[in-house]
Amino acid sequence: MNLHHLFAGTGDRTVRYALSGAGGGFARTLLAQTPRIGRLAPAVLCDRDVERLRRMLVELGYPADRLAVCADAAEVARAAEHGYVALVVDGALLPAAPWDILVEATGSPADGYAMAREALTGGRHVAMVSKEVDSVAGLHLADLARDNGVVYTTADGDQPANLIALVTWAELLGLDIVAIGKSSEYDLVFDPATGSVTQLDTTVPAPELAALLGLGSDVRATLAARAAAVGALPTGATADYCEMAVVATSTGFRPDVERLHYPVARIAELADVYSLREDGGVLHRSGAVDVFSALRLPDEASFAGGVFVVVRTGDPVTWDTLRGKGHVVSRDGRYAAVYLPYHLMGVETPVSLLSAVLHGRPSGGTDPRAHAVLAGRAERDLPAGTVLDMGGHHHDVTGVQAVLLRDEDAPADAAPLYLAAHATLGRDVPAGALITLGDLAEPDADLLHAWTSGRASRATGTTPAPHASR
């Protein structure tokens, strides 16, 4: 589609955005791209370290004399009136400036939810980058957007939105989708010269991989051998599970197994790997959402951040033609993989912002539902009084293994992982047990309401009574 046609006829209006978590990596990519787009501008930016944020903006080419650090609502309003970009520490100051859409990128479940709720109930759109917020409160926020006549959307450039776009493209074309998913964040790069494999900045010996670069006759046996060969490297980032929870909500595709399969696979193998078990693959059933670890050689292109769909091929002549053009088709010809091997983070997000504001159209699912639950199992015995701290690059919850449960497999009292984050356990949780709402002593009341309200609404088709924030 020619995107110039999509936005033709929308006039010369400048779309103005607020941005929370403005000092983060995703935010920087959006702020770096914004000056290149004539009809998009930041209005107010929120971050805990506004001086660092200010330095970053100057580094990106924003005029220093057009940046105003503001301490209260009156200062924000004055900055906006004079055409300055307001910089604030407190997210409660965001509404003091005029803007069209909030880009929520804090990664904080409670703070992000509060800012998104305030925006939606105030009649302003929200583009949700914080998957942690969406995995708990996304359904409720979608209800608030509907009730207030605004848009709640995922953000183009991030993997959930990219995958939703690829899935809906395949559905529009009538393709028979078997599985969808993404790669883990970092490739596994095998160097035959040294017999080692590197993931980001960690290198470990894995000489066995030299004999495992092909799938062989037994796909699952090869995958098991590869997994053993790279066993010293971490598998299964919490962020992966969270992103696939967001995708499940928007698409209806659900996990095949709660820990996901995480096969160590090459791009050309995806159609064979994500076939049904009776056809030699890993899937117990169709309709799966999953994550794989991309295995490649040093001179091969990366898949880190990419997304894929695997489909049944149908007409063999058509897909034999496509195989000849370089497309990934399984060895038996029954399955094919279509993929985008990249995500551009905030560089691509302006498409979502313009679409939401100028067309009232989201990038996410049209009818989100509670198809899966991002939950957690105790990795060890966790005594009462344990604080479930959240931290690190992937926002892991200390002592808890993320799992993605199909809705019918999730107990009614299963605690969403990012509602449990930062909470204190009110009772002992043995190793391997699912953390439940009853295990949490005084969970965040607003997040708990958002979780229960959103699921109730989407299950029954009714909207619960509004909740007064505490």
**Computed structural class:** alpha/beta
Number of beta-strand segments: 23
**What is the percentage of strand-forming residues?**
15-25%
Helix share of residues?
25-40%
Number of helices: 14
| Arithmetic mean of pLDDT | 94
* Spans of at least 5 consecutive residues with low confidence: 460-470
* Ends apart, CA distance between termini: 45 Å
Query: What Rg do the Cα atoms give?
Result: 23 Å
Largest sheet report: 10 strands, mixed
Gross geometry: globular
Can you put this structure into words, describing what you see?
The chain is built from 14 helices and 23 strands. It is of the alpha/beta class. Strands 8, 9, 10, 11, 12, 13, 14, 15, 16 and 17 form a ten-stranded mixed β-sheet that branches. A seven-stranded parallel β-sheet has the order 3-4-2-1-5-6-7, sandwiched between helices. The longest helix is centred in the first third of the chain and has 17 residues, at 131-147. 51% of the residues are buried. Mean pLDDT is 94; it is low at 460-470.
